[in-house]
Design brief:
Number of helices: 16
Helix content: 40-55%
Strand order of the largest sheet: 2-8-7-6-5-3-4
CATH architecture of the largest domain: 3-Layer(aba) Sandwich
CATH superfamily of the largest domain: Type I PLP-dependent aspartate aminotransferase-like (Major domain)
Structural class: alpha/beta
Strand content: 5-15%
CATH topology of the largest domain: Aspartate Aminotransferase, domain 2
Largest sheet: 7 strands, mixed
Number of domains: 2
Radius of gyration: 22 Å
Bound molecules: pyridoxal-5'-phosphate
Shape: globular
């Protein structure tokens, strides 16, 4: 029965490549609905069908899906369709059709995040989302912001600019990769709090190693002390399922061109309702908008057509199933990690347990820098990864598969690493 289903699906998959991608999504949604995510994680028939949705170049092995991920065909097509609509009568179609549909997009994203739609602003990316809060939060000279050495450099730069402009003070702590425990991470943050700490800025998933941070514990600990927490969710939304209440956060920003596979240039900002009035918008907004989440969206004219396909990207994610996706991503990471963990000179920087990791993993190779290894992997093996370095802490590569990654591609990477660890970059 299962095999028949697969053959029919594969045949229909060809049809989907010619523009009926919705059928592909429908098939994924109804696939062995009783199977648990862990069973689907290694059901290669299922992931074969998922792969039909993408148009990636198989002559390179893309193991950097962290920066931006490809969109499935259905999302690419929606983007083209909305662009075509825009050009048919720009002012009319944008103002009367595409723009009002933003509230549909907002609603779908909010439902998945578990917040009220009136708490979610559409942005171009995480940088915009977080900088709205970083620059919009009232702070006094001498107030301290606590962050880590592994937080995203643009976000650290934003705080440094506020230091120069407003006299606030940025304090940074480091943590080991991998950390000895989740308790250790919470304790490090807690120990670094001073009477002047007003904001804690942490990532939900660290872009360096993929470390998932204990955000809920930090938010609750900080709230009890009257400290605000800004959560950089650039890498978490749609990588694995969670809701606002799982984090218990007041501010969260993400990019949808990463794990949701939405068009490049899409993201969102969540602000808890009672906090909206006190955050200044980055672009000016009138006083009557003070409590309206849309005050953060007034960026002037921009390519509206890239936002409407977000709904299609949410459909695609839901068709795969958020739990199934996370289970598959963990399986892919563990496949390469288990193949290289015992190699000489290799150190895995990412913890293995589900609470602390999902798709992303990082490794360092003694005597070789991250940029050197990245360069060699591309030149010798056509494997694309990203170097990740934290000054004085580590120089590593980050490996980031996605749902379309094949087991064979993971094995090519693992064999290349075996060569690098035993014979050098020859
Ligand atoms: C943790 C984290 N925050 C913020 C960003 C910035 O994302 P964007 O360039 O989409 O704004 C990234 C990008 O990789 C990231 O990994």
């Amino acid at each position: 029965m299962h095999r028949r289903h697969f053959v029919a699906s594969a045949a229909a998959g060809v049809v989907s490549l010619n523009g009926q991608a919705l059928h592909l999504a429908d098939r994924l949604a109804t696939w062995t609905p009783s199977a648990t995510p862990d069973k689907v994680a290694d059901d290669e028939d299922f992931w074969f069908t998922v792969r039909q949705a993408f148009t990636v170049d198989r002559n390179n092995i893309n193991l950097n899906n962290g920066s931006v991920a490809p969109s499935p065909k259905s999302v690419q097509q929606a983007q083209l369709d909305y662009l075509a609509m825009t050009n048919m009568s720009p002012s009319y179609y944008v103002d009367e059709t595409l723009y009002p549909a933003f509230d549909v997009v907002r609603g779908r994203l909010a439902a998945r995040f578990g917040c009220d739609a009136e708490e979610l602003a559409l942005t171009r990316n995480t940088t915009e989302a977080l900088e709205i809060v970083q620059f919009g939060m009232p702070l006094e000279r001498g107030d301290e912001i606590l962050t880590t050495t592994q937080d995203y450099p643009s976000m650290t730069s934003a705080w440094r600019q506020r230091e120069r402009r407003d006299g606030v003070v940025l304090r940074m702590i480091s943590f080991p990769s991998p950390p000895p425990s989740v308790d250790d991470l919470v304790a490090r943050v807690e120990r670094a709090i001073t009477p002047k700490t007003k904001v804690i800025h942490v990532s939900h998933v660290y872009f360096t190693t993929g470390q998932i941070f204990p955000v809920q514990r930090i938010c609750r600990m900080a709230r009890a002390r009257g400290i605000e927490v800004i959560v950089d969710g650039g890498h978490s939304y749609a990588q694995f399922p969670f809701t606002r209440d799982d984090l218990d956060c007041d501010y969260f920003g993400t990019s949808l061109h990463k794990w949701l596979s939405a068009p490049v240039g899409t993201g969102f900002l969540y602000v808890r309702k009672e906090k909206i009035p006190k955050i200044w918008s980055l672009f000016a907004s009138p006083p009557e908008m003070a409590a309206n989440i849309r005050k953060f969206e007034g960026i002037g004219t921009f390519p509206v057509h890239i936002r409407n396909p977000i709904t299609e990207a949410v459909d695609f994610w839901e068709s795969i199933g958020p739990e199934r996706k996370a289970a598959r991503l963990r399986l892919l990471r563990r496949r390469w990690v288990n193949a290289v963990r015992e190699l000489p000179k290799v150190k895995i920087l990412t913890p293995d347990d589900d609470a602390q990791s999902c798709a992303l993993g990082a490794l360092s190779l003694d005597g070789v820098t991250g940029p050197q290894l990245t360069d060699w992997l591309m030149k010798r093996h056509r494997v694309h990864v990203r170097p990740r370095e934290v000054s004085g802490e580590f120089s590593a590569i980050r490996v980031t598969p996605n749902v379309y990654t094949t087991l064979q591609e993971i094995d090519v990477f693992a064999r290349a690493m075996t060569h690098a660890a035993t014979r050098g970059l020859t």
